[in-house]
């Protein structure tokens, strides 16, 4: 369910037979032009289907003008060097072969000269030499040209090569998942499994460091992940999914806010797809900040091409940790750990089978690490001038100093994953999956840590007992895509997730009230969508219609605080309630010409929210609905360049916590709370060019300007009587620039990402736009730094058996500085600009055995993450060594 993949459509099919693009002798130019627009897609309403069926479907079948020469029959060839499509046509005329390929793969490429007597297979290999394409020989008299990095093939029982259907995507054939952001108009991004493995994360949020506009907030407070996309986070503003499922979990953090929490094992991730801002397809309901889908491995990630079954064994050792001390300990240890002391290790085993009609994978993963140690180099103090009536004071950043142990940063994870898929009939398939994740981990209390260095109320940092979270995730996907049918490409998903948490931080906040620190959140959801493509007199029309629902149910033991001579006060620290999200959507794309594309969408969203249990069950229910439109214009003046402009509206109804959590911290319910509305404008361009400076190289570039405005932005407000409630302010605004780039020659590569904000503001009901408008909100502490960026460079040596590289990660100060906003009681975490250097590498011992190594924070710098929510330094120099074996 990739956010950007729904409308990806190759413009340039040379013919289509059974889902493959085929050019053969005798295919007319008119047929090729008509059929190059064809691709199966979408469920439409009966009215749309009625209209579509009135349009005569056009199919082109490849015919051969002459009997096809066999692969062993030598023929005299005389084909000069020329544009590759013309050379392929000349080859077809000489041999009668059928050649399947994406026209965009061949676009801009030149063939080699082919002269002399040889077999057709030999001639075809010579023809494409130097283009970067690979020849896959199929049945007698047929072959396919593919990008070896993107197309797989399996060997049949008789030894011939069975050709997969070529996946044709927007921006040209040969578009990999990593290429897709550079071929898709709009703010999309991708993190590949290889990028995750380069630098194995200490905290799961580390995997997003390379992604512009995306930050993991509070990345060191526990085992969960809370993502910030372009300044928006928390309260379900960003939908972070695991295999298309939501966890809808969260925890109260006292003065430091309310944290959204997602749990996943990074060792079993195959890739991450990111859509920034409102998304009009499945997964986008209720989330205006963005949609992130973390995809776990499938059988095809384990079983090698051409094989039926396979297994993968991975393991690693890490440094810079020691097992946590006993709960209650306040003695902070200095770094005295051995390089590999056995307190940080990972191991996982996955096995899979792939047959024509079914596939299955099972995996077991273990991950363990102790408390890590902070870096030793760099400043550990800052000049605090936030209190205007006091002189500037030199203060320590954190109770955990340079080279010291950071309490409550251990993890002990066990994950079980199973997935199975069966195919039958004419294009039908059903996939079922189950993931069980259990983590016993340390959890820092950011609010309490804020007092660890206070001269007035000093609460020393200590090692707490371990928190524990267990998630159970169930997924099912049904697909129906019959061959030769351009109107049905149906996908239906049904899923459920169960998150059961015992939190030491939560228990500490409710100590003495009878709360046990336990919460449970169950989330159910599903969607159905269908895509179709028809050719009209105005161009190729792609339609995608669908429906989505999400049912959230959060429970916490309800408690009452008792004080002398006062009635009991109900205190709900986390949500106790239900929320139902319903959505119907339409996405429409019209390829007017080869250089002009128009896209638009309409999404109808609605929600119902209701507190549950004593007290909360008596609160009024919340409900609202809205229609959210969007539109994009894309101009492609020549191959490899896209210019795009978008206007996108989104909607975010009050979250479960905003509607069904009262009492804690004096928080009262607001029955008149309105949903947030986003109105975003984007301009940008994509460059996707191959063979730019030398044969076989690849250059990718994406640049985006965004101006995001949020009406009725929800904050935690406080009135003159110091009573807190959720309330709407007039507006919030985040404006800035993003840049992503990649250059790869095969021998070396460079990747870069950069984000710069030039305007961030909050506007209150009095029209004043300053920090004071959201001074009492949690979100004011989560404003991104002014800038952040990464540059990754590497080389592949010794016939690409050895890969070595480095990553430089840099970020600036917090956008608003360190100043305390007027009226705030929650001071921002002090951030200083930092530059972190990492090292990574791998060596292929054999085709099936690889050694990996990495050094995180190579210079052992003492620093805090750009989006730290408390005074918690990041890990110091951490070295890892791992081995991967495939069978």
Care to describe what's here?
By secondary structure, the protein is mostly beta strands. It folds into 2 domains: 22-163, Phage tail protein beta-alpha-beta fold (3-Layer(bab) Sandwich), CATH 3.55.50.30; 296-886, Maltoporin, Chain A, CATH 2.40.170. It contains 10 helices and 45 strands. The protein has a 22-stranded antiparallel beta barrel. A hairpin with a 4-residue loop joins strand 41 (787-797) and strand 42 (802-811). Helix 3 runs antiparallel to helix 5. The chain is globular, with a radius of gyration of 28 Å.
In CATH terms, the superfamily of the largest domain is TonB-dependent receptor, beta-barrel domain
User: Number of DSSP strands?
Assistant: 45
Give the overall silhouette.
globular
Number of domains: 2
Q: If helices are DSSP runs of H or I spanning 4 or more residues, what is the number of helices?
A: 10
N-to-C CA distance? 30 Å
The portion of residues assigned to helices is under 10%
Major sheet size, sense and barrel closure: 22 strands, antiparallel, barrel
SSE-based structural type: mainly beta
CATH topology of the largest domain: Maltoporin, Chain A
Q: What fraction of the residues are assigned to beta strands by DSSP?
A: 35-45%
